[in-house]
Amino acid sequence: MAAVDPTPPAAAPAPPRYSLPPVRLPAEDILFCVDVDLEASAEMKSASAPSSGSASASSASPQPQPPAGAGAARPPVRRMDAVRQALLLFVHSKLAMWPDHRFAFASLGETVSMVKKDFSSDVGSAMEAIHSLSASESRYAMADLTQLFKIAYQEGKRAESQGRLLRVVLIYCRSSTKPHHQWPVKPKNFTLDIIYLHDKPTADNCPQKVYDALVDALEHVSQYEGYILETGQGLARVFFRQMCILLSHPLQRCIQDDLDIPKQVAKKTLAIEAAQNEDGTPVSSQQ
């Protein structure tokens, strides 16, 4: 019988450690430009609003009526209401991440007008500027972004000299008016993000053409990866989710084609159920 070697086998070499040296990202100066056309006063849908099928079913059976004097129905939520709320949430969330971020505000009618020109981290001045935003009582014949890009270019040079990064966030609401600009190709020194709130396509509007014009504008001026997000659903919660995506720093972004957030809860549930059906072993969603 062969002798047993008492020496234990040599341990496998430990894999090399991967380390990423810490890098401080530049603080952002963020200029919000909000469309104040009449379409910014369009009503948004309620997530709890009954569908036509449920409405017909409810009409077939009597429903309890609210007691007298219970109060009037809630006023409708309009796009501008949702915009103001989303901007407040954005400012508070961004400052919670890093209190050195700064904000300024502008409105878009036929051209751009500054609402709060000086960039500041002061929450009070940001709230004052946000609450001052209101939709016009008329439609504008055009939407010229030239002045917005001119302002952004000058502010981008100033931000760069201070070791900061400038970003413009445009919130656009018109379903038929294509924005235009006369901006020469210059060194790109700011990032452009766009959220497009529009009506559903009909014979009387052209949101696809407007969207294409917005994409062209973004690609023309954006220094880093800019996102363009759109919705015609009219749901405020969809708009709020999109604003949360824009909290991401431009230097930490994947390209928009690879963007897969926010995750849909329904899809996650289906994936868990599929995994359970494959091996019969429950899969926990908790880590």
TrEMBL record:
Matching InterPro entries: BABAM1
GO biological process: DNA repair
Species of the source: Urochloa decumbens
Keyword Oxidoreductase: no
Location of the protein in the cell: Nucleus
The keyword Transport belongs to this UniProt entry's keyword annotation: no
Listed Low complexity bias regions: 46-73
The protein's name in its UniProt record: BRISC and BRCA1-A complex member 1
Main location: nucleus
Sorted UniProt keywords: Cytoplasm, DNA damage, DNA repair, Nucleus
GO cellular component: nucleus
Region of interest: Disordered: 45-76
Tree of life domain: Eukaryota
